[in-house]
Design a protein that fits this description.
Elements lengths: L1 H18 L2 H14 L31 H14 L3 E5 L7 H10 L1 H8 L8 E8 L4 E8 L3 H18 L6 H14 L2 E2 L1 H6 L9 H7 L1 E2 L1 H14 L4 E5 L4 E7 L2 E5 L20 E3 L1 H7 L16
Parallel strand pairs: 4-5
Antiparallel strand pairs: 1-3, 2-3, 6-7, 7-8, 8-9
């Protein structure tokens, strides 16, 4: 039906082009296009969060008027778990496509937005295409397959059954999962040092299923449990490292499982608590090299 209506519309335009001047025809075309500019209907999956932060907020406005509006659209779409989403730049926002191009080319910014997104909705790759009519389409390829999600969820259920008690406080739960992940995960030195990829060590699948991980795997595994426990959190990334930021006891504190799971000369497994729920000041007192991050992306971690 839509194709038939569009065909009739073209016939009318061709007729008018012979009868009237070009300005009138262009006016009709522009208004037809404007009437048909509709964004995709947003559909949240079961993993989607309702959390807002200083840097990114959930939005229901898909007619952006600023760069910040665009960033919130990207966050909202990623958070939803959708694989494709389209919206239009309004004529009133003259720099919209310029800003879209800038955001879509800025992998550091996109990764920063991605760190706020629920683990299973996070992207492995993200692409944006746009046209001269102002239509913008975001294509998302997710990090985790459905099979990996189900395996991780089953492992989480089993872990929770084994180590989490109904009487535990939030602090007890965080510490118990912190210890469990460290005790059951080895740091994948072959991958970090030599790029030898035997395990999915950048993901929670590596940490919880294969029991080998680097910082991304530790952080994703911890975030999954924090989200399950209803604890507000997101991931913070420096140039070469990533860890968790947790809202605990009315303040934002750092939680870095990777650095609490040191590699020892003897090969013995040990747990440290140097990076367990510490303030930003305490973090910088301990170490300043691998934990240097862009505060504008993670303002709660000032």
């Amino acid at each position: 039906m839509k194709k038939l209506l569009f065909l009739l519309f073209l016939i009318v335009i061709l007729f008018l082009s012979f009868q009237y001047n070009e300005e009138i025809v262009q006016f009709i075309v522009d208004h037809y296009v404007e009437l048909n500019k509709k964004s995709t209907v947003l559909e949240n999956n079961t993993y989607a969060s309702s959390n807002n932060y200083e840097f990114v907020q959930i939005t229901d406005n898909f007619e952006p008027e600023s760069r910040n509006d665009l960033i919130n659209i990207y966050y909202t779409v990623l958070n939803s778990g959708m694989e494709e989403f389209s919206f239009y730049c309004p004529n009133s926002y003259t720099d919209c496509l310029i800003d879209v191009e800038d955001i879509s080319d800025n992998q550091t910014l996109l990764s920063g937005i991605n760190n706020y997104v629920p683990v299973f909705n996070s992207f492995k790759t993200i692409d944006t295409e746009y046209d001269t009519l102002g239509k913008v389409t975001i294509h998302i390829h997710h990090t985790y397959t459905e099979e990996q999600e189900q395996a991780i969820l089953s492992a989480m259920d089993q872990i929770e059954k084994e180590v989490i008690l109904p009487t535990m406080t939030i602090d007890d739960k965080i510490k118990t999962i912190h210890d469990y992940i460290i005790n059951h995960t080895k740091y994948d030195k072959d991958y970090s040092d030599n790029q030898v990829k035997q395990y999915q060590s950048t993901t929670a699948y590596g940490a919880l299923i294969e029991h080998y991980a680097i910082c991304g795997g530790y952080a994703d595994a911890m975030k999954l449990f924090l989200d399950r426990f209803g604890i507000k959190n997101y991931k913070v990334a420096s140039e070469n490292h990533i860890w968790n930021l947790v809202y605990y006891n009315d303040q934002w504190v750092h939680l870095d499982l990777t650095w609490d799971d040191p590699i020892t000369d003897s090969g013995n497994d040990i747990i440290e608590y140097d990076y367990y729920l510490i303030t930003t000041d305490e973090l910088h007192e301990l170490e300043t090299d691998q934990h240097i991050y862009n505060v504008s992306f993670y303002p709660e971690a000032k």
